[in-house]
Predict the 3D structure of the following.
Amino acid sequence: MDKWLEQTHPTVNYVRYADDAILHCRSKQQAEYVMRNLNKRMQEVGLELHPEKTKLVYCKDYRRQQNHPTVKFDFLGYSFQPRTTKSKKTGKLFLGYDCAISISSKKRIADKMEELDIVNLTFKSIVGVAGYLNPYIRGWVNYFGKYRLSSLNSVFQLLRNRLVRWARKRHNRYKTNLNKAFKWLERIRKQFPYLFYQWQLGFW
């Protein structure tokens, strides 16, 4: 596909990872033309484009204001879509086209937390829990935190709830009092702000 695009559609920039690709076109007409030709090319070599994933997406922002049924797509765990953005030069808000962790990626992280069975970890102290979880947390941040780090806030809220449940199971004095368990974890965060990796980044 790469060579075919370079030879037949040299003005079309593209990004590809394995069998996922994004083709950047300058207009809807060009996009439709390229897609028709790409479909033919795939059929010639005995392949086909994924019927659900293959679609035309309009990158709507403050410069591109036309209406189109699809303005969002997912790629490599990120969702690309119109988002309110603050200008680095003026500090004013404007509509940009930007990426952040996708809903499906958040679900995969939630599933991983379930698999790690945080609530039933047998460490005697929260220090052991932090040492066990930090490599996972650091990995999530290093990959998904490159763009719109704040979008990981809901992930860390979910993790915080699991840590509170761990505390309630490990300590009898918190079993029947959810508020006390939350206050205990907040005290730990204030006393040891670098214990969990997300705490170092200002998340709670």
